[in-house]
Every structure is written in C-alpha cells, then in structure tokens.
Amino acid sequence: MPRTSKAEAELQVDEPVIEGRYAQVGPYTVGYETMKEDMDPAPLFRGLPDDRCQCPHWGQVLSGKIVFRYADHDEVFHAGDAYYGAPGHLPLIFAGTEIVEFSPTAELNSTMEVVGRNLAEAMS
C-alpha cells in the first residue's frame, strides 16, 4: 500500500511564509504544510479560471486555522477539522497553522504552474 509521512516527504518549499513537504501517493500529492506568517495569497491565483484555485483538496487542520473563500461564502476550518476545499476557492492562511492535505497531482501541478509564475513576477 502506498504511504508517506511528514518526515519522509521532500521539503520543496521553505519560504518566510510557508514550509511545504510533499510526496506523491498514487494519483494524489500529499502535502504537509506549516504556515509561518499570515498571508492572503489571492494574487498568486491570477490567471486561473475566475482567478481562483481550481484544484480540489481534502485535508485536516492539525493546528491553527485555514479559510477557504468562495465567491458567495467563506468556510473556516480549525485544529482537528477534516475539510474539503472545492474548486473555486481562495485560501487565507494564518501563522502557526499546520495542515496535511491531499490533492489530485495533475490538477495541483496545473495550478502550481500559474502560482509559480505569479510568484516569480511578484519577486522580480
């Protein structure tokens, strides 16, 4: 059976705002993310349909909270909550939050291409 753990997942993102460790398990990417600072990453999703994340995510908040903002409502998840983030959301992240999240790899990679380009532009 495919499996991973936070200790085994590759550290792929280590920025002032977020640390992310990721591993592929079957057709899904498992992400272990730690938010170091509050951040509204909405501008990074510019260029995706409706300028929102179109990748679905399933996860659990281990500590802190995360908010998914949709066009017509917000969903707030706290430590201990399992969640589903439907396509069409914008995350809002808070310092001290840790999550473990499962995302379809193909959709996640398409989203991260756009996020990566927007981040590179913002840093140049």
Please describe the structure with a list of short key phrases separated by commas or semicolons.
single chain; three-stranded antiparallel β-sheet; 15% helix; globular
Structural write-up:
With 124 residues, the chain is an alpha+beta fold. Strands 1-2-3-9-4-7 form a six-stranded antiparallel sheet. A three-stranded antiparallel sheet has the order 6-5-8, with no helix packed on it. The radius of gyration is 14 Å and the shape is globular. It has one helix and nine strands. The longest helix has 19 residues, at 105-123. β1 (10-14) and β2 (18-25) form a beta hairpin. The protein has one helix at 105-123, and strands at residues 10-14, 18-25, 28-35, 57-63, 65-69, 74-78, 82-85, 90-93, 98-104. InterPro entries: RmlC_Cupin_sf (IPR011051). It comes from Streptomyces cylindrosporus. This is Cupin domain-containing protein.
